[in-house]
């Protein structure tokens, strides 16, 4: 299903999220729909490598999916403040890597959190694959309980209700850890990332964390219909190469959260370019945070509106 252009939703989304809207897709909406706030997903432009996303429901509930690393705590805090977040209904940790969970303590310090959502992977990871990040993730669960938050484990097949008409299905990981031949911690943690399918009315968002190529292949083989989405956050920041996954998703919009370049990487990979090369051939419009800035997608369930805003630091004129 493809959304078609509609001017009416452009005006509504601009008013609702208080920002300029760059692109939109949609169908004609009724007068009743126009009075309702949209669901928005904001992928935050981080200064360091990582991922942090804020989802706001039409009812004004806020869900934070990953938090970036500890070095981006002020960046994430600024976004939450700008969006007038008073309480976080659910904080999701996709998997135990520092660039996704490192900012969690800072969030708990500044905002009340009702629920910490994790997978059973951290609790069940084989002993030989445990690292300091595994222990840190378990400590975060203890912190959540100390702060009065419920810790909730979800896995493949779990469902979450995040408000009226906002249905979340967990597509991955399975209850027991997914292990490849000769598994290593880094790749194993990525292959066990939470994959969330968020549906609001007709609009579908796919949030796959750092899903690895091997796990993606399983989903493509076993659940291709579930992968189809209008919006996808590019797995593993763009360090991902499963073309069958991109074809199965067939998204209108893909968003990659990364930094502009990785000079210390053995091949100096630029994942934004990889994301474009992977998703553009299937007709997907690709946004990359270091190029386009913070990206917000709004939907009333029948339309999409995409706004990309780059925070530009101005330097004084030289004499």
General description of the model:
The structure is a single chain. This protein is an alpha/beta fold. Helix content is 30%, strand content 23%. The protein has helices at residues 7-17, 31-34, 73-82, 98-101, 104-110, 121-124, 132-146, 185-191, 213-222, 224-227, 243-249, 271-279, 289-292, and strands spanning 23-25, 39-43, 52-56, 62-67, 90-92, 115-118, 150-153, 159-161, 166-172, 195-200, 203-207, 231-233, 253-256, 285-288, 294-299, 304-309. It is globular and about 50 Å long.
Residue fraction in strands? 15-25%
Strand order of the largest sheet: 1-16-15-2-3-4-5-6-7
Radius of gyration: 19 Å
Number of helices in the DSSP assignment: 13
Q: Could you estimate the helical fraction of the residues in percent?
A: 25-40%
CA distance, first residue to last residue: 56 Å
Quantity of strands, as a count: 16
What sort of overall outline do the alpha carbons produce when their principal axes are compared?
Answer: globular
Low-confidence segments, ≥5 residues, pLDDT <50? 4-32
How do the helices and strands follow one another from N- to C-terminus? Answer: HEHEEEHEHHEHHEEEHEEHHEHEHEHEE
Structural class: alpha/beta
Mean of residue pLDDT values: 89
Question: Major beta sheet, specifics?
Answer: 9 strands, mixed
